[in-house]
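INFO batch 0412 | record 1 of 1 | parsing
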Amino acid sequence: MTAFSAGVVYTPYDIEDSSRDSDPRCSAYLSRLLACRDTLPPSVQSKMTEPKLCELASCLVDGTVFEIVKELEEIQQLNERAFLNRRMKVVSAHKAQRGNLAKKHADEVAGSLHKQHNLPLIKARHRAEVDAL
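INFO prediction complete | emitting tokens
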């Protein structure tokens, strides 16, 4: 600790960040961060010291964090869109396979109508194919 004026003791943190105190946005972010910290369990509160929260508040004032978050949101949206497209392709291919299988089964049943004794075997095989799909 260093003393600069009579009776006032400054920490190195106070000396470094005196310029932050003049920014009302930084003070607002800091007060909100401190309020959020107070809602956390004591074990977590002890890890979130005021100097760390001041640094975080100054980063928020800088705007870099918000730009990073915005870019991450855009990346997430692109990934979600790609996953949705891939899912739609898989669903469409599965639907086409089921349609082809149903047509094949209908043709087999229609072709074996004159052999009624084979019908239970064919239907059992069809059920196994549908379950496998």
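INFO post-check: The CA atoms of residues 99 and 114 lie 25 Å apart.
INFO record closed
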